[in-house]
User: Fold these one by one.
Assistant:
Number 1:
Amino acid sequence: MGAYVVGGAALKIDRHFELGYKDLAYRVVRDCPECSDVDYVIVASALPELSAHQVDLGIHVVQWIGRRVPALRVESGESSGLAAVDLAASLVSSGRARRVLVLGVEKVTEYPTYTANYFYSLTLDYEYEVLRGISPPAYAALAMKELMNSGVRRECFSGWAIRMHENAVSVPHAMLRFKISLESFKDSQVLAEPLTLYDSFASGDGAAAVVVSSKPNEGDSSPEIVYSGAEVGLPAYLRDRVSDLTASVGLLRRAAERLGLDLRRAAVELHDSYTVYPIAILKGLGYLDDRCDLGGFEYLNLSGGLKARGHPVGATGVYQVYEIFKLMTDGLGGRTAPAEYGLAHSMSGPDNSSRVVVLRR
């Protein structure tokens, strides 16, 4: 039995100070006609115990949105969203469910920035990294230095950020819908040399929904989920090089070989919490040289990526799948991707874990 993405919706990622987890979930379901007829709900979220003092979020969300169907919550750090979509596809393909609503929802702006950054740092190993002052930006800076020392130009990373901001301008739910220049990039705040603020993702609250069904929509080319996979990597402190993202590179390579797809021709949403990571992944796959010419990619992070669309942590993977669904059907922000395949990639921490979901038209 197949598993098809037949609908969805996404809220604008922003600082929604007036809305809690349940309110965000309710608003995205309200905007999603396909979300009414489901027999299972999966909620993807990484931080509610920390940011809202709430456990068992799946049940509370389902009660709040007025459903009386089985529900559970998936937590897998930054890759929670794709883990939830993977589980939904498994439930549908096995016949355990007919239509599954996947809700990604996250609140990251309830506290001062330093507290939110601390919550985000807990995607790392608390005992071995966080207690010793290691942070995600520190790892990203180390990875960037490694690539630069091996010949990659600094402009590779600024070029990625500029392209993501250009892509986000037309995306209704993107957080940073404005272009940036190389000059403004050079003037941005340094987070950890050589990493700057414009190398980092946009942090905001968000909620996105997709419906996974055993049957496609009538008369519609509902994309089918044809592959989902996961890989666990070595902790960054045990690698020879932080920039060797072997879990992501290996998983993406296997998916491409299995399906015969070329990432340059697919609608791809690649995890880019920091600009160094997509460059490292694409170099590892052999798509880029040290000049980082991205001109051969037709539909790469048309959402603006985590960099400019925004990164509501556990909800991001659901946003990615929704965006690919829109690009492959009726369009996203006035753009379509007439590709056979769409691929969403997510990782938690600096390649601690990696997940991939592939859709086929």
Number 2:
Amino acid sequence: MCSAVLGCGAQVEPFDGGGPRDAGLGLQDAGLAPQDAGPEPQDGGGQSRCARVPTGFPATERFARERTQLDQPDDEPGAAQVHVLYVEPADVTAPRALDVQGDLRRSLEAGNGWLAHRTGGARLRFDRCDGAIDITFVKEPSLLQDAVATGFGDAAFPTPVFIRDRLVRGLRSRFAAPNKLYLIVWDGLAYGHCGGASFPPLLSDHYTALFRGGVFAATYVTQATAAGATSVTVHSTASLPSAPFDASLGAERVRVAGVNGTTLTLAQPMHRLLESLLADTTIPPCRSNPLSADGVALGYAEFAALHEVMHTLGIVPSGAPDFAPPPVAPGHVGDSVMGGGDDLMYQGAQPWTCGSFAPSPAMARCVLDAARRNYFQVTGGTGVDLARSAFLSPTPPLAVLPPNW
């Protein structure tokens, strides 16, 4: 979907569109290899084997949990399940602790509630420990908040793009259980979109991602200048409006007086290396989309998470009647689909309205393959069908894994 939150696919991240919000598998049966049972219980004496409710929260708290850097013991060992990785960049200056405070669990439970409402009860099976979604915290030393990912030495990608692929390279040696789909929540900078997903069989792996720090139509300073200088060199000016215009450069406000190639002339001195510049006309950044406040109400962020997981399950399959042709990124339904922009997997000329705020699943306008002919409960279909996915709970009869799993 080309949208303010999701962004458009490119190259090895066959993800989602990058236009403004108003722009518009049958493998083997689900006999999965069991994973390692995880770490031993943290203590004896009848204590919980899982992360506890943090100090200051009531004992009945459903979502907040102490931080853990381990994949905790699974409530359903060996079952196909989605494990969440909350990844923070090395140089973050204002940690948000979305894992500890419960923000991520509330958001994921809200999205899953909508899915259950549309499927008749089936939900995504999240990796849980004593009922709470298991979120593993990772401090990623190889990636920086506002800089080139030098730790990976990507000569072909010398800028803060293709973050999903870089994250996967750093995480796959530590998180590779054969029965788990990993949802990476990257709480750092990403350019051009708010997430990235594999799409089997075109691109097959076990990782999908959300970028909380995603920004659109952004550029950034590539060369440090002397103190007081008003001329800066940037990565790209292709998406900037004609000068003069107002913008944010990092945390400060600036006035861009002129644009000449990749050189900006500023009305006041600015010179921080690799600072992000956002014109006032730029699509709002991904963080402007709030996470569910109560685990029930939902909006763009919750639907974005579902959308990305669906891609890694192989949805929408290329043989679907309403499969969107190029230049739409692979894995979507297009303008011919019943419901248009209200479909969870839509991308096209219409607005993607699926992510509109709703106080409850029943009030959400988003639909799940309303005509039942593309990716859910498809009669006589031979492609990927969510209704047969081993990642649903309860597990459907004759459940199957994603292509090339």
